[in-house]
Specification:
The complex is a heterodimer of chains A (124) and B (185).
Chain A (H helix, E strand, L loop, with lengths): L3 E3 L7 E4 L5 E8 L4 H15 L6 E11 L1 H16 L5 E9 L3 H13 L4 E6 L1
Chain B lengths: L12 H8 L4 E8 L2 H17 L4 H22 L8 E8 L3 E11 H15 L3 H14 L10 H9 L1 E10 L4 E11 L1
Antiparallel strand pairs in B: 1-2, 2-3, 3-5, 4-5
Helix pairs in contact in B: 2-3, 3-6, 5-6
The chains are: A alpha/beta (124), B alpha+beta (185).
């Protein structure tokens, strides 16, 4: 199984999913018109990853913007990680800019919805 | 204004647009949305608001609202007759904040659904909107291209006060939908 990486565009985030280290990252802007299509390959990759995950999985989410169709994909990603919780120590680090209370609230909302621990991290 | 050549009731998007364009315009666009136009509008709005030193959180809320509304309109109109794909976006500044106005054509059968969704979100307070957003996100499987009403809930969360919706009759099958939201400073 190879790592899954994608370089960012003005409308889609950087995706960095390292299956050896368990370091994952989604950062930038996630506002594609068709988010489901954009995230589909990652979903497939994650389905394989959660079958035999690393001891530790750390997902950094650091988004400036995301649209509502991306939020459906994010919850799906978190739910996939939940499935690996017995085999891997999983944590999501949800970053938000200092003044961006909406992004902070989104992190809180996801935190209420999923079992995987989410840590909210304020950035400058 | 010369109106004698027109039927008084005939809807005209340009007239509607110009009626709404009065003072303190920060951004305006009238045209059909393609994917590249949509990106350009978002870029230009961000740029305009940036050079006006708009507070970051306010700018992000406005851009977020536009992402949802323009992507909705784009998805809705992309396979339609070219006659009904024109739309507009206006952003005005006021004392307390910014007013965002979008206008686009709808088929008559879609009017009621939109009306009732807007009435629903208008009846809810901010905490209720957050609960509803989580609820819809929780049950909604990643089905059709996004939608599911999350967009309008998100727009309500990010705006202040009620969402105003107006529907003008266009012809036997179409209406024109004008949506107006305010983002406070």
């Amino acid at each position: 199984m190879e790592n899954y990486t994608l370089t960012p565009t003005p409308k889609t985030p950087r995706l960095y999913f390292n299956q050896v280290s368990g370091d994952f990252e989604i950062s930038g802007r996630s506002i594609p018109e068709n988010s489901i299509e954009f995230y589909r390959p990652l979903m497939e990759w994650l389905d394989k990853y959660v079958e035999s995950p690393g001891d530790q999985t750390r997902l950094t989410v650091n988004l400036e913007y995301f649209n509502t169709s991306s939020s459906k994909c994010l919850i799906e990603i978190f739910r996939k990680l939940e499935k690996a919780a017995e085999k891997s120590d999983i944590k999501v680090m949800w970053h938000y800019e200092e003044e961006d209370e909406d992004m902070m609230e989104s992190g809180e909302d996801f935190k209420k919805m999923i079992k995987v621990p989410i840590e909210l991290i304020e950035t400058k | 204004m010369v109106q004698s050549n027109h039927m008084v009731s005939a809807f005209n998007i340009k007239e509607k647009y110009h009626q709404l364009l009065n003072t303190n315009i920060e951004y305006q666009f009238l045209g059909s949305l393609s994917q590249s136009k949509l990106d350009k509008v978002l870029d230009e709005v961000e740029h305009q608001l940036n050079i006006r030193n708009t507070q970051k959180i306010v700018l992000k809320r406005i851009v977020n609202i536009l992402i949802e509304s323009l992507q909705n309109i784009y998805r809705y109109t992309k396979n339609r007759d070219s006659e009904f794909t024109e739309m507009f976006v206006i952003i005005k500044s006021g004392n307390d904040g910014h007013t965002i106005i979008t206008g686009n054509y709808l088929r008559d059968e879609d009017v009621e659904g939109i009306k009732s969704r807007i009435e629903m979100v208008n009846a809810l307070g901010i905490e209720e909107l957050r609960d509803l957003y989580r609820g819809v996100l929780d049950i909604g499987e990643a089905s059709h291209e996004g939608g599911a009403g999350l967009g309008i809930i998100d727009m309500a969360k990010k705006s202040s006060g009620k969402i105003l919706a107006e529907f003008d009759e266009v012809d036997n099958n179409h209406a024109f939908f004008t949506l107006q939201l305010v983002v406070n400073n």
